[in-house]
TrEMBL record:
Keyword Oxidoreductase: no
Pfam families the UniProt entry points to: FGase (PF05013)
InterPro entries reported in the protein's UniProt record: N-FG_amidohydro, UCP029730
Protein's recorded name: Putative N-formylglutamate amidohydrolase
Gene Ontology molecular functions: hydrolase activity
Source organism of the structure: Sphingobium fontiphilum
Keywords (A to Z) from UniProt: Hydrolase
Length: 238
């Protein structure tokens, strides 16, 4: 057991599902100084990910690692030293408890163990493939005029092998697909840059739209679609 991550064991396939923002957990000894209701919103957790990832892991017989704490405690998808690593502001909400946080302590407690475990899991695979699963809010409070019509976004940096296979398959499944949307993987891809791109490991990174995976039916739908797409990616790139 670790407070930094949860492991889902669906089987021994050389496929690792990585979910940096799957948890809204804030340890009892950390006071963020915010309304508890905010922990149910997108600023704290990638809604739907903790439900979709285990379904895919079971369907494809693989392992998933879910980040164990809220992104408001520490953002596991940020580089060490990044200004957003321990946020003091998120989508218009002040996080006052983080102003006095000790970055080194939170890195040692959460960030380093999480990334060490990812590396360990990948080292145990012969021909690994990584699936990075996130979700995005259809509407930012600080940018209400910004349209976010996509059902799913596909993110990558230099290695777009998985993305090029996945995008037409996702479109064929009836999804409105954003290529490098709503974010760009060239700037928000820290975990995949570290574990996939730096090691030549093929991967696919996606962002599901949160209102589409907020209930059981939507979660099952996306798990089914993404499981099929991942299976095809592995066949073509394995």
């Amino acid at each position: 057991m670790s407070e930094a991550f949860t492991i889902i064991r669906g089987g021994e396939a050389d496929l690792l599902i990585v979910c940096d923002h799957a948890s809204a957990c804030v340890p009892t000894d950390i006071d963020l100084g915010i309304d508890a209701a905010l922990l149910e919103q997108h600023i704290a957790v990638d809604i739907g990910v903790a439900q979709v990832a285990p379904m895919i892991a079971q369907a494809l017989g693989c392992t998933a690692i879910l980040g164990g704490v809220s992104r408001l405690v520490i953002d596991l998808n940020r580089e060490v030293g990044d200004s957003g690593l321990i946020p003091v502001m998120s989508d218009g909400h002040v996080i006052p408890g983080n102003r006095s946080a000790d970055p080194a302590q939170r890195l040692m407690r959460f960030h380093h163990p999480y990334h060490r475990k990812i590396a360990e899991l990948l080292d145990g695979m012969t021909s690994p493939f990584i699936f990075s699963l996130h979700s995005f809010t259809p509407r930012l409070a600080t940018r209400p005029e910004e349209a976010r019509p996509w059902d799913i976004g596909v993110l990558y940096n230099q290695d777009d092998r998985g993305a090029r296979i996945a995008i037409p398959l996702l479109e064929a499944a009836g999804l409105n697909v954003g290529d490098q949307l709503p974010y760009s993987g060239t700037s928000l891809n820290a975990t995949m840059d570290r574990h996939a791109e730096a090691n030549g490991i093929p991967y696919l990174g996606v962002e599901m739209r949160q209102d589409l995976v907020a209930d059981a039916a939507g979660q099952a739908r996306f798990a089914r679609i993404l499981g099929s797409v991942l299976h095809e990616c592995r066949l073509r790139l394995g």
